[in-house]
Write a structure and sequence with these properties.
This protein is mainly α and 259 residues long. It has six helices and seven strands, in the order βααββββαβααβα. The protein has two domains: 130 residues, no CATH class; 112 residues, no CATH class. It is 38% helix and 7% strand. The strands form three sheets. The protein has a three-stranded antiparallel sheet. The protein has a two-stranded antiparallel sheet with strand order 2-3. α1 runs antiparallel to α2 and α5 crosses α6.
Amino acid sequence: MRTTNSWPVSSTVWWRGWAGWPTTRTPTATALSSTTTTQGYAHRAALTGAELLERFGRTDEERGRAAGWRAYAAALAVRFREQFWRSDELGPYPAIALDGAKAAVSGVASNMGHLLGTRLLNAAEERIVVDRLLHPTMFSGYGVRTMADTNAAYWPLRYHVGSVWTHDNAVIIEGMLASGFNAEARVLAQALLRVGEGFGYRLPELFSGQSADEVYPPAPYPASCRPQAWAAASAITVAKALGALAAQPGRPDSPPNPR
């Protein structure tokens, strides 16, 4: 995303792109970038579009366009696998983004969790992502940190580089449920429920990434909104993961069978 103001935003998904770029060793990381999450969203959109065309296309020509979108999604998955995956001392993980020179921006971040349920990853890759998100370097006990605590740029109260965002975790939970990681989704949901208890059951926009072994309740982020719309909406996902919401008749809302 190009900007005309003073904000040095090179690429934006739900968080401002500049916030995580200190994690990279490449000098081109401030250039226009392709984010991990965008790849997942595009892949899911392509497959969903293909399914809509196949089901509701009014002519053979319209229905035939579905093949093109499926081919697009398949090619995107190949490129993602070739360009985004990196490894560190704990094993492989999807990088945050590609910088302007198409080099991977290193750093383990919560954004990889947004790939779950998009069908961009195969089953083995989803397992890797879920395990990494719940590793102590990422999971504080209250939620998944935006950045691993082993990263040089990490700070527990840094806006997008160490704090925990309620809605970010809700998106991850939704992806886990969609991919059949029901037990892991419950772990995150129970963590957010504990956060809610510590904040008078008004889930904050974001809060500190400090470990649950160090502090209760989580330290509040000074400028965090509470209540806040997308944080409040996360309660629905928490309830779903904990089995408090049943699927409505005629709607395929029930989580799939666990792996």
